[in-house]
């Protein structure tokens, strides 16, 4: 609830927005949609995203990773968000990632994706290494 209030406050201020790039593994149990980078003066950028469980099984938790690339496509940093809890089948949940792990330049490219998920009542985690896909998405277009 507090996170929602903070995001609402950020959006109500004079904020600048731009889309974040989203990558996904082909078998990802969570789909990210509408990822938007919100920036306000004197605060780190925040990525606001929608996470959807397209499957029939509930998820206990999942994690999102954000990659920051410079304008030339070189990786500057990566940051894993704390685990997000409970995502029911065929439902969507909105959440954020605060990009406070490094300085973000205006021409940096932000790429996010789901890198781990755990089904409810299971000790087994689904995992994906998204760095190569993120680097390909962030490469400058020729």
Give keywords.
single chain; 142 residues; mainly beta; Immunoglobulin-like; four-stranded antiparallel beta sheet; 2 helices; 10 strands; globular
Would you summarize the structure shown here?
By secondary structure, this protein is mainly beta.
Description of the molecule:
The protein is mostly beta strands. It has a single domain, classed as Sandwich (Immunoglobulin-like), CATH 2.60.40. Helices cover 13% and strands 45% of the residues. A hairpin with a 6-residue loop joins strand 3 and strand 4.
Q: How many helices does DSSP assign?
A: 2
Which second-level CATH architecture applies? Sandwich
Give the strand content. Answer: over 45%
| CATH topology category name | Immunoglobulin-like
Whole-number average pLDDT?
Answer: 90
Question: Helix fraction?
Answer: 10-25%
List the domain count as a whole number. 1
**Low-confidence stretches at least 5 residues in length (pLDDT < 50)?**
none
Task: Give the helices and strands as they follow along the chain.
Answer: HEEEEEEEEEEH
Shape: globular
Question: Would you spell out the secondary-structure blueprint of this structure?
Answer:
Layout: H1 2-12, E1 16-19, E2 21-22, E3 31-39, E4 46-52, E5 59-69, E6 75-80, E7 84-87, E8 92-98, E9 109-119, E10 125-127, H2 131-138
Parallel strand pairs: 2-9
Antiparallel strand pairs: 1-3, 3-4, 4-8, 5-6, 5-7, 5-9, 9-10
């Amino acid at each position: 609830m507090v996170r929602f209030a903070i995001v609402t406050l950020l959006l109500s201020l004079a904020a600048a927005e731009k889309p974040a790039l989203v990558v996904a593994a082909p078998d990802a149990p969570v789909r990210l949609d509408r990822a938007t980078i919100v920036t306000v003066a004197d605060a780190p950028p925040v990525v606001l995203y929608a996470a959807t469980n397209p499957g029939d099984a509930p998820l206990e938790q999942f994690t999102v990773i954000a990659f920051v690339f410079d304008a030339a496509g070189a990786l500057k940093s990566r940051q894993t968000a704390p685990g997000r809890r409970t995502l029911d089948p065929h439902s969507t949940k909105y959440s954020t990632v605060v990009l406070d792990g490094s300085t973000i330049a205006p021409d940096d490219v932000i790429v996010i994706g789901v890198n781990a998920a755990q089904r409810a009542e299971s000790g087994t985690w689904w995992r994906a290494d998204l760095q190569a896909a993120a680097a390909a998405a962030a490469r400058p277009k020729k």
